[in-house]
Write a structure and sequence with these properties.
- The protein is of the alpha+beta class and 185 residues long.
- It has a single domain, classed as 2-Layer Sandwich (Gyrase A, domain 2), CATH 3.30.1360.100.
- Helices cover 61% and strands 23% of the residues.
- It contains two helices and four strands.
- A four-stranded antiparallel β-sheet has the order 1-2-4-3, with helices on one face.
- The longest helix is centred in the N-terminal third of the chain and has 99 residues.
């Protein structure tokens, strides 16, 4: 069989241009592959730098968490100390109140005629148990307490005769309210 080329010569020259187009397409694929490789490498380097930054931030966060824990512990301790200060100041006020009440009692005390066995302060209620030479001494002591601005509603709860060392004495129990005047008891 015989082959005859019926194509004009100019068209025959275009056939070698297909090789050139194929090589250009091949070069374009290579260029795209290189660009893709560049982007992959760039993303990987960004990824590793971000991982390092994340690790450093996590270390820094751990430091701050320790500081935060210490801060909450200090706040708890501060709250406890503030409560203790409140208790101490309340006790200090009560101590001063008790001292002032005892000073007021001793100012009205009848020397050599009576003595106290028990003095109890619960809130603003004062209870006094003692022994006196007689009912007149107890009555005089009650009148003296009523005249002071510290004691109100002085009441005699009970009296009873008691013999101590061959002496006939009167055992008594009084109750009264303690008033606060100008911040003082």
């Amino acid at each position: 069989m015989i082959k005859i080329n019926l194509l004009p010569r100019e068209e025959i020259k275009t056939a070698p241009d297909i090789k050139r187009e194929v090589s250009i397409i091949f070069l374009l694929y290579i260029l795209l592959a290189l660009i893709g490789a560049y982007f992959v490498m760039s993303i990987n380097s960004q990824k590793t730098s971000l991982k390092k930054e994340l690790q450093s931030l996590q270390i820094e966060l751990a430091k701050y968490q320790d500081i935060q824990k210490k801060l909450t512990d200090l706040k708890k301790q501060k709250k406890i100390i503030e409560q203790k200060i409140k208790v101490v100041s309340a006790l200090e006020k009560e101590r001063k109140k008790v001292i002032e009440i005892l000073n007021a009692l001793t100012a009205n005390f009848l020397v050599n005629k009576m003595w106290f066995e028990e003095v109890t302060l619960e809130g603003n209620q004062l209870s006094i148990k003692g022994i006196a030479l007689g009912n007149e001494t107890v009555a005089e002591f009650m009148e003296r307490l009523k005249k002071t601005p510290y004691f109100q509603l002085v009441e005699l709860i009970k009296t009873e005769k008691k013999k101590i060392a061959e002496l006939s004495l009167t055992k008594f129990t009084l109750k009264c309210s303690v008033s606060v005047i100008g911040g003082k008891a």
